[in-house]
Design brief:
Layout (H helix, E strand, L loop, with lengths): L1 E4 L11 E4 L4 E4 L8 H4 L15 E3 L5 H4 L2 H6 L6 E4 H31 L11 H7 L3 E4 L5 E4 L2 E7 L7 E7 L9 E5 L22 E5 L12 H17 L4 E4 L5 H14 L8 E3 L2 H12 L7 H9 L3 E3 L3 H6 L8 E4 L9 H8 L6 E4 L8 H6 L4 E4 L2 E4 L3 E4 L9 H9 L8 E4 L3 H14 L5 E2 L5 E6 L2 E4 L18 H18 L3 H16 L2
Parallel strand pairs: 3-4, 4-5, 5-6, 10-11, 11-20, 12-15, 12-16, 13-14, 13-15, 16-19, 20-21
Antiparallel strand pairs: 1-2, 1-22, 2-3, 7-8, 8-9, 9-10, 17-18, 22-23
Helix pairs in contact: 4-5, 4-8, 6-7, 7-9, 15-16
This protein binds zinc ion.
Length: 528
């Protein structure tokens, strides 16, 4: 059997793993790549495998970095079943068409600019219609139920406690030689934290051969966080934002994070710690997702609290673009929760454009910000951003509270891995940037002395033979230089350089000085 790592290698997005057995090919997740422009370009390129050769897809959860390229896969010829938990299928039924819509909008904007510059136009990765079409391939299954995926491969899902419907995928493959035991692999998916407001703790099987484990927070310890301490931090942020007298903008993932924030803000209002204030959930996707959460309220922790929060009279779910634009006319303190969480798309961008340059506004980043994303750029304190064709000087207060993560921290992750013992083969670390991965590799090596722990790079393949996993002989050329994954690319540096050049030119006191500086820059370019 061969295991190919086609995504989430030394980075947190684009999860995609290909398992090749004697009887067929199965993908685990087919996620979109987020982060720097160079990395995102991978989404436009061909898959490193032929979609029509894939027999089935196993989907761990609905987040776009795990599911986002499914419509592209289907459009490319994959017509097999997509096995996933029922709530994940429900969430994908809104998230994938929404993602298709975003692709169409982004490409339309880009093509508008390209046309005006005489450049070639692009096709969207997939459209709303492509995404809607692939929904017929979903086969919802329940936790703990064995499913035969291929004649020599079966699957069972375990609750990963990370998101509504999230799962770890246990895979058992039949031995190719008579008398040998089957091989058991466990793909962690994303593992939730114990402090998760709307999810129960992660579970999983024990006694496996190989573990493919996420490491998003493999280097972080946040064990002191619970509902009360998280709400105390949020209370402080809301109080400070209120003093600035402008809006509190919270870029948030539409699914689960928005509902968690809503429940926490509602709890603070209900307990009288903050006075009632207008709260806008300004994301059509968040509105749809909230409806799905309401439908599954009995399956989640604090489902009753969420139902009450959704019915609170100060909470408004905006639908149309006009309603969204109208929020800009509201003065004074109010709260806007809008997608996307890393500020890369969605309605949050027009709110940021309206407010980033005003000192009374506060932006509160509550989620993971991938390297190279606008959210990370703001978090790192840049005073200048380029968005929607204009340059904006950042005067708003940028705050962050990284306590809403859906991911287990290092001690929780270690506890989860230990509960899977015995792990008789290897552990592969995926879905993490270099620093947390190296930290978690060391932690595991100290704890589980005999188990090899490796960190695969993009498009690397391993031969799995029972308990042994070895780097395959014939490696294909990776689609990206491994050094690029998870880091900033030249686009980020270039934007900064343009900004610095403009500043330098403007700081010259007169026309003569500016002309001299421009001449010098030209000379530097010519001598290059
Ligand atoms: Zn996730």
């Amino acid at each position: 059997m061969k295991l190919h790592f086609h995504g989430a290698c030394r980075t947190v997005t684009g999860s995609c793993f290909l398992l090749e057995t004697a009887q067929g090919k199965v993908l685990v997740d087919c996620g979109m790549v987020q982060g720097s422009k160079t990395e995102r370009e991978l989404n436009y390129r061909d898959f490193p495998f032929r979609p029509q050769e894939i027999d089935a897809l196993i989907l761990t959860h609905a987040h776009i970095d795990h599911s986002g390229l499914i419509p592209k896969l289907c459009k490319g010829g994959f017509d097999g079943p997509i096995y996933t938990i029922a709530a994940t299928a429900d969430l994908c039924s809104i998230m994938l068409p929404d993602s298709g819509h975003i692709q169409e909008m982004e490409v339309e904007q880009l093509n508008h600019r390209n046309r005006s510059k005489g450049k070639e136009t692009l096709e969207p990765i997939y459209t709303f219609d492509d995404a809607t079409a692939c929904l017929t391939q979903f086969r919802p299954v329940a936790y703990h139920q064995w499913i035969t995926v291929l004649p020599d491969l079966k699957l069972r899902f375990w609750n990963a406690g990370h998101l509504l419907g999230s799962a770890s995928a246990e895979i058992e493959t039949t031995a190719s030689k008579a008398g040998e035991k089957p091989t058991r692999l466990l793909f962690s998916g994303d593992i939730g934290t114990h402090a998760k407001l709307l999810e129960e703790g992660a579970e999983g099987p024990s006694d496996i051969d190989h573990l493919i484990c996420e490491t998003t927070y493999g280097g972080t310890d946040r064990s002191d966080m619970d509902d009360d301490s998280r709400r105390a931090l949020l209370l402080q942020e809301i109080t400070e934002a209120k003093h600035r007298k402008g809006p509190l903008l919270i870029p948030s993932f539409a699914v689960e994070r928005t509902q968690e924030l809503l429940v926490d803000i509602f709890s603070l209002i209900e307990s009288g710690q903050i006075p009632p204030c207008p709260i806008f959930i300004d994301s059509p996707l968040a509105t749809r997702a909230s409806e799905i959460f309401a439908r599954h309220a009995s399956e989640i922790r604090n489902g009753d609290l969420l139902m009450r929060a959704m019915q609170e009279k100060n909470v408004r779910f905006t639908e149309t673009r006009e309603q969204s634009m109208a929020i800009s006319r509201i003065g004074g303190f109010h709260i806007i929760i809008s997608a996307s969480g890393m500020c890369e798309a969605g309605r949050i961008r027009h709110h940021l454009k309206d407010w980033l340059w005003r000192p009374e506004a506060t932006v509160l980043l509550v989620g993971y910000q991938a390297n190279g994303s606008l959210g990370r750029t703001l978090l790192e304190g840049t005073r200048h951003v380029r968005m929607m064709g204009s340059e904006i000087e950042v005067k708003a207060t940028i705050r962050s509270m990284d306590v809403y993560s859906g991911h287990a921290d290092a001690p929780e992750l270690l506890e989860w891995v230990k509960a899977r013992a015995p792990i008789k083969g290897s552990i592969f670390l995926v879905h993490g940037e270099a620093e947390p991965q190296n930290a978690f590799q060391q932690t595991l090596q100290k704890t589980l002395h005999a188990t090899p722990v490796c960190i695969p790079s993009l498009d690397e393949s391993y031969d799995i033979d029972g308990r042994s996993a070895t780097l395959a002989q014939n490696q294909t050329r990776p689609r990206l230089d491994p050094a690029i994954a998870g880091s900033k690319d030249w686009n980020n540096d270039f934007t900064q350089l343009i900004f610095e050049l403009k500043q330098a030119v403007h700081h010259e006191s007169d026309e003569k000085g500016r002309a001299k500086l421009i001449r010098k820059i030209r000379q530097a370019l010519d001598s290059h």
